[in-house]
Amino acid sequence: MLSFKRFFFAAFGCMTLFVLYHTDRFLFVHRMKDWGYYYSVRWWIVVHALAGVTTLALGPLQFSSSLRRKHPRIHRLSGRLYLGGIAVAAPIAVYLGFTHGRPSMVLPTLIQSILWVVTGSAALLAARNRNFELHRQWVIRSYAITLIFVVTRVLMAIPAMERHGFDALVPLLWILNIAALLITQLGMNWPALFASRRAPAP
User: Fold this and answer.
1) Which of 34, 126, 129, 155 could form a disulfide with 134 if both were Cys (CB 3.0 to 4.6 A apart)?
2) How far apart are CA 122 and CA 12, in angstroms?
3) For residue 110, which of 174, 45, 51 has the smallest C-alpha distance?
4) Up-side HSE of residue 124: CA atoms within 13 Å toward CB?
5) What is the mean pLDDT for each group of 10 consecutive residues in the chain (202 residues)?
6) Is residue 118 part of a domain?
7) Looking at the whole model, is its pTM more than 0.70?
């Protein structure tokens, strides 16, 4: 039986492939109009994209209980590579936002990058302190920030959103920054929020 976790990551895998084809294939198909606009920073984009894809691909491994239990070294190695991808992709995103992006996109991109680095750093610190429950929670938050890259581009591919361009993209990015933290927190606290506590017997 397909578990929810596997279905979730499979769905996002398909969404990522769609985004690479629909939005980012200009890196490979140079006749597309975006190639000319981004030509001067093409290598920064390539490095940023490779680092981002690394985090997207390795993130699901951090949630594999069997891998963590049977192959802890692989779990730790993939975790370091995941954080390495963030360490590379986040600063480049800020650089591109300031030097080659629309002014309205600078602040939400900066906030997203800060959240990405902070959540990843908190996950690493919790693991080093051997607080593995706290580590798990911060990894969930970190990967939720990672998925903003995919969700934003999928939603902007909807014709009703796409025709509004940056007028829709900027508020969408703000909403997703907030939702990534709020939804994950609600998900982690959901059982406790609705658990009934029985009064102790006299």
Assistant:
1) 126
2) 24
3) 174
4) 16
5) 70 80 68 66 86 90 86 91 95 90 87 95 94 93 93 88 84 92 89 67 52
6) yes
7) yes
Give a yes or no: residue 35 inside a domain: yes
How many CB atoms within 10 Å of residue 102? 12
If one counts the domains in the chain, the total is 1
In whole angstroms, what is the distance from residue 48 CA to residue 96 CA?
10
Distance CA 109, CA 101 (A): 10
Helix-strand-coil split of the chain, %, nearest 5: 85, 0, 15
| Domain of residue 37, residue span | 4-189
Asked if residue 173 is part of any domain, the answer here is yes
Count the neighbouring beta carbons within 10 Å of the beta carbon of residue 181: 14
Q: What's the pLDDT at 63?
A: 86
Angle value at C-alpha 89, between 189 and 124, nearest 5 degrees: 45
Dihedral, 77, 79, 84, 86 alpha carbons, nearest 10: 160
